[in-house]
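Why does this matter for the project? Reviewers at the last site visit asked to see concrete outputs rather than summary tables. In response, this paragraph embeds two records directly. Each consists of the residue sequence and, immediately after it, the corresponding structure tokens. Nothing has been edited or filtered.
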Amino acid sequence: MKKYNKILILFLILSFLPLSLIKVPVIILEDIKASKTIFIHKISPNDQFTMHWMHSVELAPWEETFYIDNNYKIILDYTRFKAFGAGVPKSAGKKTFVKNGWIYFAEINKEMPNLAYGISNFAKHTFYFKNITLKLYEMVPNDNPVKIYTDKLSIISYIYKKLIT
């Protein structure tokens, strides 16, 4: 019986070892004030996500679309908005154009290592990733900042965070 227990323990250790060593690239949204993960999902290069909100001055929708590069960094791809207003430059990125009533600043290609948004009920910040829509203004208290970043977690850590989120 003792030999069987030792073999079983060894088998379990060897079975779970890869789960703690193999890393999974993920995107994480964190409520900064609460130090709480509100969203976590596995990512791949070229995945895209968009943050949508209503601009407080122009009272018009704005969107920023990002992609994940081959090193799992967040890169600002393009911004689109309905109207120019105070503080908005006349152009950004390599291309500026109008399409379907939206003004685009495209091919910005700027790495965003510290991406955070102050979430508000007025602006109605909404996060889009794949087929997932997160109304952040319903998930965190008004005026709480949300940080968006990538990381590489062990499979065990990823599963745990996914279960508690």
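We now turn to the second protein, recorded in exactly the same manner.
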Amino acid sequence: MQFYRPELLYGLLALAIPIIVHLFQLRKFKTEPFTNVALLKKLIISSRKSSKLKKWLSLIARLLIITCLVLAFAQPYFSDSKIVDQKKQIGVFIDNSYSMALKGQNTSLFEKAKKELLEALPENENYHIATHDQSLKNVKPSEFKSWLYDLDYSSVSLDLKAIFTKAQSLYQAQENQLNELVILSDFQYFEEFDSSSLDTTYNYHFIQYQPKEQINFSIDTAYLKTSAEQKTLMFKVSASDQTTQSLPVSLYDDKTLLGKFSLNFEDETEKNYSFDIEQNEIINGRIQIDDASLSFDNKLFFSIAEPEKIKVLIISQQATSYLDKVYNNERFDYQQSLIGNLEYADISQADVVILNELQSIPNALKISIENHIAENKVLGIIPSKDIDLNSYNDLFNALNLRPYSAVNSNEIKLTTIAFEHPIFEDVFTQRIQNFDYPSFESYYRSSNPQKALAFSNGLAFLESQNNIFRFNATIEDNSNFKQSPLVVLSFYNLALQAQTKTQLYAEIGQSYQFNIKTQLNPDEVLSLSQDEYKFIPKQNAKGQHITLQFDENLNTPGHYAITNTQNDTLYQLAFNLNRKENQFNYLDVSNFNNVKTYDSFTTYAQNWSESQNQKSLWQWFIAFALIFMIIELLLLRFIK
């Protein structure tokens, strides 16, 4: 005979209690004087014999009752010794992704899976355990149950192939071993899965939990649309099925309500909405809906920071006025310097440097420009008509740009705009087919494929390589390009490439980089914090620019502050959970090959016990305990 819970056999120590009571005769008798005691002596002798018999029988009954109850709770069973001695490893994967938060009949699928494990987990085995974000090897049933109580949802979500890989990595390879893998999940559909590819050295048991039919609303995405006059917050709300239901939506900055409105789906599954933002920044933005289905997608956090001024330095051979009109505004911190009066320290402070029609490139300037580019800053180059080819090509070689040959003096027109180029992306409301083509008296030949503007012969006028933008013709006194609307668009958007490109938010679990401009000492680092949580992300500093790298450090959505060593908040970032877990598409695991399916873990546990030829005996011991209780009652009542 074996026991599921042998530690409860310590309860047999309770047998000492009735024995002690019996031996020490806890009753006390008071002696009373009586004149005629002859008759009483006979009665006492008779009574004592009867009393001793009754007490011994009662003691035996009580001992048997306690023994049967202790054995019943220890859950005894008989099993085939060959099966018991067989080597086996059992792995259990518990799906703790957010899709399991959907309601079943009475509770969430996740809580239902945990409850079944707590109630029906076979007690005579050790287990390997895995979830989307955790794994444990060779865990005792009692430790398994204790761990289950603290198990919560995870922002990490693995597909089925990754689940098998993770779970099977816990097993130790042994010959003639029985490998069991139990997966408790809703088996959400992400991609097709071929069950014939399963490793046949494992026995697979799938328990699929199905939610009740319901409509889930979700805030899916948000982005910012900007123009010179207005900022507009665009976002999309979706429903899992067509509905006519209206949904209240609120927009907050921290605890301040900025707006509240209602979305009517009108038998649609998606609804787009725009909200005009009046202020320059929303530090702790939040879009929120009220939906009782899934809660993790009811909030979308975002952060809009007022951009810093972009420092633009123009280095010219002689003063140029047309660039003043582009950069002399509140968006830029603009400075123009003649090459003869240049302070080289100004280059290190600038975000954008434009070499404006210089005749030659001094070596000191070349070195400063190389350092400027090494810090991921923006460079613009406009050649003059009569350049020192050697000095220019030395700079181009250092920057990995194609060198120039002699100037081409044939007049040519600019005829092509690359609307998909980063400089012109989202600038034009429609693609212009005919416009007043600017013309140039001369140009330099270049065939860089990254063309923003091109001549009629297909060669590039404005080309780019990373953060370097090169104009291949002189503009001043060589063309009417200054009178074209393209001159403002080209130079304005060129400088905007130096602006830190930040998303409104990032997704937890995805690799994300954030660039911040700040000055730190060599021994200082930046931290990310939310309430009591704080950690130091990977970071790489180049001059005043620091790149922060976020991988899988975060688990909780919300706003996080970037702080320095003095705990000054430099920036606010927003992180949200991935929305793929709110898709109501599921695999039909009943059609899988080499897999057994169950409607609950309880059913699996019963089948497992039967497969091990286990015969439970606890019911018999409960019955014996009841029989001995009845016997004790009869003894106490009928034996005087």
